[in-house]
Write a sequence for this structure.
């Protein structure tokens, strides 16, 4: 536990309530959207007497942020904003986030807390392969590493050959990057004939996309590192909202002194029973530039009791409610398919889901690569048997009928950031 963390649950709850009262009032007084939304729901900041009262207030969605693009959700004048980040905007206008100087300091502290909780320290050399720019990953990791006192190498994403050279020459001990791009870096080590097991890397802190235990095992086996998860999203702050700690792998401690969590049913918006799975909703407790009240993250998880810290944990993200596809009445998430494919050792963790509609019904194709050791070694009969095996596993464990195409290693495009797992090829209505 670091010195700036609340020591007891009682201290934490008192701090949360004080901060929540402040942020709800600031949002109401300084953000026109919240004044309108609260008034429509017939609630005021004075109605927040306990932490549970936050459920009386309306939810905030990404659509609200886009409707007030670019600066309409800011709670301070622009002269107090010192940094602007934004999402990629692949499904519409990007969501824009503004930070005050205090927000940047808080974010840096929380990223440093996360790196330390994962097992890092001031003596480490940190290789940042997240993208820099409007995406929050690169600068978030960078400022956190510097706040911790580590030596930061600001590599950014892309130029995979150079990533390998820098790892070999600069000898970093920690790498922070998306797990899918870490796989691409591992592939480049193999292509260059360099054994990654003998590099200086000891720890990988991976985030920005859901990834499972199979991916963890793959990265740890191939790179000889400890692989841990970091959670965040640009709209709320960036990375550093929750961290998988070295002493409690398998779950992530949520930094509750800065973010208040709820779990809701993604269909109804109502709270679920304690410990049940649902969609994570977050209220920022300390953000000045753009406070968010009950923001729907769309990330699916469960809220779990604390262990060595006073703050609660979340289960690792299993997917996003808006990534779900429905195939003939069956709800399917990319993570469902990934977990099934991990059961077949001849298949690599590089896959793509293709949605089609050749007739009146939707169909799902799964394209997946074989392991590099099998390159060019499988005949057409063996490939078809492997495809049939994968189709059977998906049907049994995911409950959906698919057509699997097994392809050679390196066929699928490698992502330098977040991996794109689903392509919708259905005709536009």
């Amino acid at each position: 536990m670091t010195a700036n963390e609340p020591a007891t649950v009682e201290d934490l709850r008192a701090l949360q309530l004080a901060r929540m009262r402040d942020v709800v009032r600031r949002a109401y007084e300084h953000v026109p959207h919240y004044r309108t939304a609260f008034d429509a729901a017939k609630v005021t900041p004075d109605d927040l007497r306990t932490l549970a009262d936050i459920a009386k207030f309306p939810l905030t969605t990404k659509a609200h942020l886009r409707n007030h693009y670019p600066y309409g959700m800011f709670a301070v004048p622009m002269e107090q904003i010192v940094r602007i980040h934004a999402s990629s905007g692949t499904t519409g206008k990007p969501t824009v986030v503004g930070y005050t100087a205090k927000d940047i300091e808080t974010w840096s502290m929380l990223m440093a807390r996360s790196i330390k909780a994962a097992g890092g320290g001031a003596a480490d050399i940190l290789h940042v392969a997240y993208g820099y720019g409007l995406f929050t990953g690169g600068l978030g990791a960078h400022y956190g590493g510097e706040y911790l006192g580590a030596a930061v190498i600001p590599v950014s994403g892309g130029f995979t050959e150079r990533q390998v050279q820098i790892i070999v020459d600069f000898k970093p001990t920690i790498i922070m990057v998306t797990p899918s791009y870490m796989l691409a870096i591992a592939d480049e080590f193999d292509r260059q004939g360099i054994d990654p097991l003998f590099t200086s890397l000891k720890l990988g802190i991976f985030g920005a996309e859901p990834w499972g235990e199979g991916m963890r095992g793959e990265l740890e086996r191939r790179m000889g590192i400890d692989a841990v998860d970091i959670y965040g999203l640009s709209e709320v702050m960036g990375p550093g909202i929750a961290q998988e700690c070295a002493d409690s792998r398998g779950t992530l401690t949520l930094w509750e002194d800065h973010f208040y969590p709820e779990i809701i049913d993604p269909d109804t918006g109502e709270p679920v029973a304690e410990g049940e799975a649902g969609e994570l909703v977050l209220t920022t407790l300390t953000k000045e530039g753009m406070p968010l009240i009950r923001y729907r993250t769309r990330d699916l998880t469960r809220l779990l009791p604390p262990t060595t810290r006073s703050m609660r944990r979340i289960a690792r993200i299993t997917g996003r409610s808006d990534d779900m596809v429905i195939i003939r009445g069956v709800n399917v998430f990319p993570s469902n398919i990934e977990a099934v494919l991990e059961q077949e050792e001849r298949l690599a963790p590089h896959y793509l889901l293709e949605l089609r509609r050749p007739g009146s019904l939707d169909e799902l194709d799964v394209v997946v690569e074989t392991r590099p050791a099998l390159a060019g070694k499988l005949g057409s009969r063996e490939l078809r048997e492997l495809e049939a095996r994968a189709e059977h596993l998906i049907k049994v464990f995911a409950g959906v009928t698919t057509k699997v195409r097994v392809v050679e290693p390196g066929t699928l495009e490698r992502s330098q950031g977040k991996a794109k797992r689903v392509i919708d090829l259905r005709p536009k209505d």
In short: The CA atoms of residues 31 and 345 lie 53 Å apart.
